[in-house]
Design goal:
The chain has one domain. Helix 1 links the parallel strand 1 and strand 2. With 71 residues, it is an alpha/beta fold. It is built from 2 helices and 3 strands. It has a 3-stranded parallel sheet. The longest helix is centred in the middle third of the chain and has 14 residues.
Length: 71
Amino acid sequence: MGYTALIAICEPQCYGFEHVETNSAFIAAVMLAFPNERVLFLAEEGHLKLVRDKLSRNSVGKLEYNAVKIP
C-alpha cells in the first residue's frame, strides 16, 4: 500500500553531551529495527548536533532532525 509511518524520538531534558552515547545507540537500534520507516529525532540543538555527529560516523542511515527548546 506504500504507507510509511514516522517514528519520532524526543529527548526532552538533556543538553549538550548528556546521554549522547545512550541516545545514539537507541536511535541506531530503532533504525535497524525499522529500516523502511522515517525516523525523526527531536532534541536541544547542542545535543542534537553531538548525536548527529556520532551517528554520521557510524553510518546508521538517513535520520531526520529537529531542534527544540527544552525547559
